[in-house]
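Re: that chain you flagged

S.,

Sorry for the slow reply, it's been a week of failed gels. I finally had a moment to sit down with the sequence you sent. For the record, here it is as I used it:
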Amino acid sequence: MPKSYDVIVIGLGGMGSATAYYLARRGKRVLGLEQHTPGHDQGSSHGRSRIIRQAYFEDAAYVPLLLRAYELWEQLEYDAGRQGELLTLTGGLMMGSPESKTVQGSTQSARAYGLPHELLTAADMHRRFPPLLPPTWMVALYEAKAGVLHPEETVLAHMQCAEQLGAELHFKEPVLQWEAAASGDRVAVTTGRATYEAERLVIAAGPWAPVLLADLGLPLVVERQVLYWFAPRGGIEPFLPGRFPLFICEGPDGLQPYGFPATGGAEEGVKISFFRQGGLCTPETIDRTVCPEEIAFVQQYLTDLLIPTLDGPCLETATCMYTTTPDEHFIISTHPHHTQVTIAAGFSGHGYKFCSVVGEVLTDLATMGSTSHPIELFAPERFAVPHKD
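Prediction finished late last night. Pasting the structure tokens below so you have them in one place:
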């Protein structure tokens, strides 16, 4: 007979690893299935750094989730014995014209929830952070609580803590199919090795979600994202944490570059990227090669607009994938047709900071069928996905 569990989790990236941990904390018999190695670089949960912030320009409805996410990231550091290693507070600038969504949306969220923040002029930014030389029309919201998460390390920490609590995690074991019993109380998951049964299933498969959730017809698209690390002219010191913040900048053409302090020192350089500027792909067709023209464009844009000294050699590049919805909001829900299945998808390039709280939400949904967290914004029904009668 197939081995049985309380909950099976498909995908052990950012969201899935957190879910396995919170399920195990609640005493559930958990099986986690991952087709790659632990903390791999083939999906969406790698690249050494991810932004975390509270004054959320995308929608103020995210702020309560963010406040809980910070608490849970700190708890993870404690549980994993890695205090101060997984989340680094660096401060962050949300930059653009006074009318830009990046500035206006951040300010609205900060004011709505009483979040500490400052509004800075271009001269203020340059005085406080000398490498920045923004145009005079640019302003910014500065948030001291913004910081950097280290994705590979947080994934591994969630896995470590889950296993210590009894979760069974399998790697290099791709899922071939899953089935939900019509009775609503069982699922079966078949991999290349075996078939497993459980009372509940959580699907948190990142860019593989469009295939695993094909029955729902969700409007998910997968986009190629490129990360770049540059050596700044004049040395790394002005870019070190404590001297340089993370930033998201909305340019006059609507492009949105973002960057980080040099948390890895001179060896890694300064990481920058552009939000949602890659072409469409699938996990099978993504082009992992970064061409010289891509590097030249990104570097020229940043040096012209914002950071003139970021014109040194490109030290490294990497690719990852965004799985995006049309409105760029997440999908977090009980499966519309199967109450014993919980789904998480479409994190649209801004979801990693929420992994801790999404793990808690998915655990709530898988064990209780509901959650006290505000997730109405993430219902799949907004895309005309009907519930089964």
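What I noticed first: The radius of gyration is 21 Å.

Talk soon,
D.
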